[in-house]
Design brief:
With 124 residues, the protein is mainly alpha-helical. The chain has one domain. The protein contains 4 helices and 2 strands, in the order ααααββ. The radius of gyration is 26 Å and the shape is elongated.
C-alpha cells in the first residue's frame, strides 16, 4: 500500500468513527469522538498560550535591548509593543540606535560599542 492509500484509509476510518459516534450505546466510537474533540480543544487552548508566552518574551527583550542601547523610556517602548505587537516591534527595531552591543568592563552589562558611557554604571 502506498502512503497516500494508507493516509486515505486512516482518514476514512476516522470519519466512520465520528459518524458512528452519534449512535447511542457505541462506547468505542464515543470514546474516539471524544478524544478527537479533546484534541481540537487542546489545540485551541494551546495556541493562545504559546502566543502569550512569545509576546511576553518579546516584551522582555525590548526592555533589555532598549536599556542596553541607552534609550530613555524603556517602559514606554514595552507598553507600545504590548498594545500593537507587530507594528510596535517593527517601529522599535527601526528606531533604536544601531550598533554592536559589547559587555561593559565595569559592570558586565551590555552596552552600545559607540557609546561613551555605560547606561547602567556610568563608566567608560
Amino acid at each position: 500500500m502506498t502512503r497516500s492509500a494508507k493516509l486515505t484509509a486512516a482518514v476514512w476510518a476516522l470519519l466512520q468513527a465520528l459518524l458512528s459516534a452519534q449512535r447511542p450505546g457505541d462506547d468505542a466510537a464515543n470514546a474516539a469522538a471524544g478524544a478527537l474533540g479533546c484534541l481540537g480543544c487542546g489545540t485551541f487552548l494551546l495556541i493562545p498560550v504559546v502566543l502569550f508566552v512569545v509576546q511576553i518574551a518579546i516584551l522582555i527583550w525590548v526592555v533589555k535591548d532598549s536599556k542596553a542601547r541607552g534609550m530613555d523610556g524603556a517602559v514606554i517602548w514595552m507598553i507600545f509593543v504590548f498594545l500593537v505587537p507587530v507594528i510596535g516591534l517593527i517601529v522599535y527595531v527601526f528606531s533604536r540606535p544601531q550598533g554592536a552591543l559589547v559587555k561593559c568592563a565595569s559592570c558586565g552589562n551590555m552596552r552600545l560599542q559607540a557609546s561613551a558611557k555605560c547606561p547602567h554604571c556610568g563608566n567608560a
